[in-house]
UniProtKB/TrEMBL annotation:
<dbReference type="Pfam" id="PF01761">
    <property type="entry name" value="DHQ_synthase"/>
</dbReference>
<comment type="similarity">
    <text>Belongs to the sugar phosphate cyclases superfamily. Dehydroquinate synthase family.</text>
</comment>
<keyword id="KW-0057">Aromatic amino acid biosynthesis</keyword>
<keyword id="KW-0963">Cytoplasm</keyword>
<keyword id="KW-0862">Zinc</keyword>
<dbReference type="InterPro" id="IPR050071">
    <property type="entry name" value="Dehydroquinate_synthase"/>
</dbReference>
<dbReference type="GO" id="GO:0000166">
    <property type="term" value="F:nucleotide binding"/>
</dbReference>
<comment type="pathway">
    <text>Metabolic intermediate biosynthesis; chorismate biosynthesis; chorismate from D-erythrose 4-phosphate and phosphoenolpyruvate: step 2/7.</text>
</comment>
<feature type="binding site">
    <location>
        <begin position="122"/>
        <end position="123"/>
    </location>
    <ligand>
        <name>NAD(+)</name>
    </ligand>
</feature>
<feature type="binding site">
    <location>
        <begin position="64"/>
        <end position="69"/>
    </location>
    <ligand>
        <name>NAD(+)</name>
    </ligand>
</feature>
<dbReference type="GO" id="GO:0009073">
    <property type="term" value="P:aromatic amino acid family biosynthetic process"/>
</dbReference>
<dbReference type="InterPro" id="IPR016037">
    <property type="entry name" value="DHQ_synth_AroB"/>
</dbReference>
<feature type="binding site">
    <location>
        <position position="144"/>
    </location>
    <ligand>
        <name>NAD(+)</name>
    </ligand>
</feature>
<keyword id="KW-0456">Lyase</keyword>
<feature type="binding site">
    <location>
        <position position="177"/>
    </location>
    <ligand>
        <name>Zn(2+)</name>
    </ligand>
</feature>
<protein>
    <recommendedName>
        <fullName>3-dehydroquinate synthase</fullName>
        <ecNumber>4.2.3.4</ecNumber>
    </recommendedName>
</protein>
<dbReference type="GO" id="GO:0003856">
    <property type="term" value="F:3-dehydroquinate synthase activity"/>
</dbReference>
């Protein structure tokens, strides 16, 4: 178990789905359980446990993946909450990957200006990142997570048994955020992830250690800076380019895959800005490729038009101030810094270095 500040616990273990209802704060009478389509069975068992505990469960299946993170889905759930008479002491439980926990958290954050949410992440990415730290939100066509709120959960319950059904490609995508934590804060993660077969094997002991280490990195950072006044920005390493890639693709890219390419982009940019050497750039590619993550950005159209679209999307990144782009960068492993307002020629050169 990892404590986030003085606020809540992240429970990590096998068979802990049974404990979810115990983490619903006292006073709740009604529970809205939102879940990804593939998690219907888990949602059913949590609903049964809620009924046995005297709560009234309402179960709502969400569209899969990024299709859950829309205003339409939020409106639908607000109506469910209204019609069921949810009050401020009632609660939401979100069961699924990061898309489900972002949407479930957002609905909890906005209903009556905030009701408790228990996050039950079922992907590696959800466990190490999305469900922890209180960032909730939805996408709009113009950009990723542009609407949202900081709303820390009442608890996060990570049942490692649920990872057994996770497709390998989604497990690998989650490794991007794990490796990100290695580059920004915990070099031991990079050593462990280098044994890629073990690191991506749900039956081996390396993956739980990687998950715990990455959660610890996130817990330490968000405990110190929940609202991203400064330090928390380091968790956004690789995300300026990644979110642009996701938006330009119509949210068809997996987030983790985009973060992998985004970290290579910012490494290439940082080298050109004189912050790091070629060796550290190569280390990014090696670490990501070892586990099967992409390190290049395929352009399936006009190269210049694509750059124009990506550059415009990067301007909508939340770290931008005025018209000045700001990147999280490194000066070395576990030595994050900021790269503010890099020259447009460097931005374009880094794109040319990652595109194929
Ligand atoms: N709030 C944050 O701090 C934060 C941090 C990182 C990422 N995110 C967000 O998280 C999202 C990405 O999360 P993700 O990678 O988990 O993607 P996802 O939620 O889209 O899940 C990926 C796929 O795995 C399936 N799935 C989930 N659990 C499963 C299981 N146990 N067995 C079988 N299939 C399963 C889902 O149905 C989906 O098809 C993005 O929207 C990203 O922006 C948020
Ligand atoms: O928790 C954070 O802070 C992060 O930046 C973690 C990221 O991995 C995550 O993708 C987050 O949702 C991005 O936040 P955003 O503020 O850039 O939308
Ligand atoms: Zn991310």
């Amino acid at each position: 178990m990892i404590r986030v500040g003085d606020d809540y616990d992240v429970v990590i273990g096998n068979g802990v789905l049974d404990q979810v209802v115990q983490h619903v704060p006292d006073g709740a009478q009604r529970i809205l359980i939102v879940h990804a389509p593939v998690l219907a069975e888990a949602a059913g068992s949590v609903a049964a446990a809620a009924s046995a505990a005297g709560l009234t469960p309402y179960v709502e299946e969400l569209p899969d993946a990024e299709a859950a993170k829309t205003a339409d889905v939020a409106v639908r759930l607000w109506s469910v909450l209204a019609q069921a008479g949810f009050t401020r002491t009632d609660a939401v439980i979100a069961i699924g990957g990061g898309a489900t926990t972002d949407l479930g958290g957002f609905v909890a954050a906005t209903w009556l200006r905030g009701v408790p949410v228990v996050q039950v992440p079922t992907t590696v990415l959800g466990m190490v990142d999305a469900a922890v730290g209180g960032k909730t939100g939805i996408n709009i066509p113009e950009g990723k997570n542009l609407v949202g709120s900081f709303h820390p959960p009442a608890a996060v319950v990570c049942d490692l048994d649920l990872l057994r059904t996770l497709p390998h490609t989604d497990l690998v995508a989650g490794m991007a955020e794990v490796i990100k934590c290695g580059f920004i804060a915990d070099p031991r993660i990079l050593e462990l992830a280098a044994d890629a077969d073990a690191a991506t094997d749900v039956a081996a002991s390396v993956l739980p250690e990687l998950i715990s280490r990455a959660v610890q990195v996130k817990a330490d950072v968000v405990s110190a800076d929940l609202r991203e006044a400064g330090l928390r920005e380091i968790l956004n390493y690789g995300h300026t380019f990644a979110h642009a890639v996701e938006q330009v693709s119509g949210f068809r890219w997996r987030h983790g895959d985009a973060v992998a390419v985004g970290m290579v982009y910012v490494a290439e940019l940082s080298r050109r800005a004189g912050l790091i050497d070629e060796e550290l750039v190569a280390q990014h590619r090696l670490a990501l490729q070892a586990v099967g993550l992409p390190t290049a950005y395929p352009v399936d159209g006009d190269v210049d038009e694509r750059w124009t679209a990506l550059r415009a999307a990067m301007g909508r990144d939340k770290k931008t101030r005025g018209s000045t782009l700001r990147f999280v960068a490194l000066t070395g492993i576990a030595q994050p810094t900021r790269l503010t307002g890099p020259d447009e020629r460097l931005l374009r050169a880094a794109y040319d270095a990652v595109r194929e």
